[in-house]
């Protein structure tokens, strides 16, 4: 489907799952020698090298494009086992290398015993809980996309005006953590239950869920498309803010236009992905 190696469909070379400890703010995986092998997921813990490179490229690309900074994270579902996903250990996205990529189950726990003690992203439950309820989703980007955040705290609704962002016409639901936890949280998704609440708000059709005062989580049928959507969510937000500043009514895309544009971009996103991936991996 893709013009270049994508998140699915290539053989690649297997590499071992890493077992590094350290990094920025995160949570160490708890070591539990008594945990039975079946509970750990069993099977092979070796990762597809091509898929790992895709994930490295995705992290570096969105960092370079200003969607991710020192925070945020990206995952891709394991095409060999939909009950698992790949994600980096807790580290700044721009710094991610192949050696940082881990395999987690949908409860967002490591499956390879060698990875016990690795520092994990505290908000990894965003990924596992969305994968559980959205079998159409094969990649997720969580970011603090800077121009998106104002649309999470004002009455202005993020709507598609740029054809590259037609997927916004599928809906941009807003997750309000106060409705789940009351006042006094740090706005972060730190538990499986909060991950479930976020996944419920995303719903069955939307590609983006906004998170009040926090950022967004963007999903896609493939890793290249999720990266594309995360970037153009930010671009559409910038352009919508500019249009608001100019003043007057804004001529947004109709739902029919948004749906047609989304279908076109599912195919066209291969072009920027080829460029982004090549550039990101050349920096190694």
Number of strands: 11
User: Based on CA inertia axes, which overall geometry fits?
Assistant: globular
Largest sheet: 7 strands, mixed
Helix segment count?
7
What is the assigned CATH homologous superfamily?
Answer: Class II aldolase/adducin N-terminal domain
Radius of gyration: 18 Å
Give a verbal description of the structure:
With 284 residues, the protein is of the alpha+beta class. It has a single domain (14-31, 41-282), classed as Class II aldolase/adducin N-terminal domain (L-fuculose-1-phosphate Aldolase, 3-Layer(aba) Sandwich). Helix content is 32%, strand content 14%. It contains seven helices and eleven strands. The chain has helices at 49-64, 125-133, 178-181, 192-202, 223-246, 255-268, 270-282, and strands at 14-15, 27-28, 47-48, 73-77, 84-88, 101-105, 119-120, 139-143, 174-175, 208-211, 215-220. Residues 1-25 and 29-39 have low confidence and may be disordered.
């Amino acid at each position: 489907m893709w013009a270049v190696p994508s998140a699915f469909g290539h053989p690649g070379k297997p590499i071992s799952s890493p077992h590094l400890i350290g990094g920025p703010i995160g949570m160490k995986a708890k070591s539990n020698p008594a945990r039975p092998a079946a509970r750990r997921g069993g099977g092979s813990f070796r990762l597809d090298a091509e898929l790992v490179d895709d994930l490295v490229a995705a992290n570096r690309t969105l960092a370079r494009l200003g969607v991710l900074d020192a925070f945020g994270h990206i995952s891709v579902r394991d095409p060999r086992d939909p009950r698992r996903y790949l994600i980096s250990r807790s580290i700044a996205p721009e710094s991610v290398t192949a050696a940082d990529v881990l395999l987690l189950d949908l409860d967002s726990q490591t499956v390879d015993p060698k990875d016990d003690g690795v520092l994990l992203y505290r908000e990894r439950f965003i990924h596992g809980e969305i994968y559980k309820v959205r079998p159409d989703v094969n990649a997720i980007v969580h970011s603090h996309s800077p121009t998106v955040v104002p649309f999470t705290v004002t009455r202005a609704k993020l709507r598609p005006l740029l054809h590259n962002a037609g997927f916004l016409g599928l809906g941009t639901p807003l997750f309000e953590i106060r409705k789940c936890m009351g006042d006094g949280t740090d706005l972060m998704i730190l538990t499986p239950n909060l991950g479930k609440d976020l996944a419920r708000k995303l719903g069955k059709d939307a590609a983006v869920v906004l998170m009040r005062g926090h950022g967004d989580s963007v999903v896609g049928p493939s890793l290249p498309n999720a990266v594309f959507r995360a970037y153009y969510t930010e671009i559409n937000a910038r352009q919508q803010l500019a249009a608001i500043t100019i003043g007057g009514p804004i001529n947004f895309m109709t739902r029919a236009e948004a749906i047609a544009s989304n279908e076109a971009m599912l195919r066209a996103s291969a072009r920027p992905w080829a460029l982004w991936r090549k550039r990101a991996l050349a920096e190694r």
